[in-house]
Each structure stands twice: as structure tokens, then as C-alpha cells.
Amino acid sequence: MNEKLKVYNDKMEKTISVLETEYGAIRAGRANPAVLDKIQVDYYGTPTPIQSLAAISVSEARILVIQPWDKSTLKAIERSIQKSDLGINPANDGSVIRIVFPPLTEERRKDICKEVHKRGEDSKVAIRAIRRDANEKLKAKKKASEISEDEQKDLEEQIQKMTDKFCKRIDEIAAKKEKEILEI
């Protein structure tokens, strides 16, 4: 790959990485510790991720078990989960917290698939914005006589191929996530 285009490739890779992280946090009916990634617990006045305060494990297909290292944080963790947008009520037995994910209804699956599709489209828009930015920079370099017209056309072609490759990857990732949601 051309060194001049590496920075744009890296930006596109970052967009894919963000999308995969977002998809990991989407609740698909199975217990997935990633759904807790964005939840912060007030730990002695400091917002702290649950992962820093407890061991999180999947005990069964739809049950997450959160075992705090410090039992005094149990209530705070429970409160944070209740306040979150997970829409699930945790069960506290005094030593661990269990989160049972109910099976998804057909309507809820379709709503989640729409969200998956929307996030995929948003990522494609971000990829195209990176392409537009790259093309504008190439035009500016051509205008400043830093590159030739042939070099500009060649680089724009490479950027377009890169854009197509990343958009195809986004479609594949989104299709895989939708399949996962609909199969449960």
C-alpha cells in the first residue's frame, strides 16, 4: 500500500474497530459480558467500570454472574446496572449478582436488526467521509504542484478500492451480527 494512503487505511480500520465494539455491546439474547462495558459504578466517588471491581462470567447461555472482589461494592454495582439502559433487573444474593437475559421476542429481534443495520450504515458514511477527506487533500496537493495529475488519479483509484473493501467488510460484519440475533 502507498505510504501516503496508510493514514486513511488506519482511520478506516479504526471505524471498523468501533463498529465491532458497538456490536459487541448489543444485547442479542445471549449473556455477553460486553453489554456491561459502558456501565460505570460510583466507587468511593469515582466512576469505575464494573470490570475493574468484579469478575464477570457467563454461567449459562443467558445468565451473567458478577462477583465483586469487595463485597461492599455489591449494592453500588446493582444500582448502576438498574440505572443503565440494559432494561434488565439484576438479582443480588448477597455475594454475587446474577443477570438473567430473557429470550428476545420476534419484534425485539427485528428492532435490534434495524439498529445493527443503522450502525453499519453510519460506519459506511464515516468511511466515505474519510475517502472524501483524502480526495480533497490530493486535489490540494495537485493544485500546489506537489503531485502530478496521473499520480492524483492513481491515488484516488487506490482510495476508492480501499473504501469499497471496507464497506464490504462492514456489510459482512453487520450480516453476521444480524444472523446471530435472528438465530437465537
| Global outline | elongated
Gyration radius over CA: 22 Å
H/E element sequence: HEEHEEHEEHH
Biggest sheet character: 4 strands, antiparallel
User: What is the topology, as strand order, of the major beta sheet?
Assistant: 3-4-6-5
Determine the fraction of residues in helical runs and give it as a percent range.
Answer: 55-70%
Number of helices: 5
Q: Roughly how many Å apart are the termini?
A: 40 Å
Low-confidence stretches: none
The number of E-state strands comes to 6
Structural class: alpha+beta
Q: What is the percentage of strand-forming residues?
A: 5-15%
Calculate the mean pLDDT score and round it.
86
Describe this protein's structure:
This protein is of the alpha+beta class. The protein is 60% helix and 15% strand. It has 5 helices and 6 strands; from the N terminus they run αββαββαββαα. The strands form 2 sheets. A 4-stranded antiparallel beta sheet has the order 3-4-6-5. Strand 5 and strand 6 form a beta hairpin. Helix 1 packs parallel to helix 5. The chain is elongated. The two termini are 40 Å apart.
Secondary-structure blueprint of this entry?
Layout: H1 3-25, E1 40-43, E2 46-49, H2 50-53, E3 54-60, E4 63-68, H3 74-83, E5 91-92, E6 97-100, H4 106-143, H5 149-183
Antiparallel strand pairs: 1-2, 3-4, 4-6, 5-6
Helix pairs in contact: 1-4, 1-5, 4-5
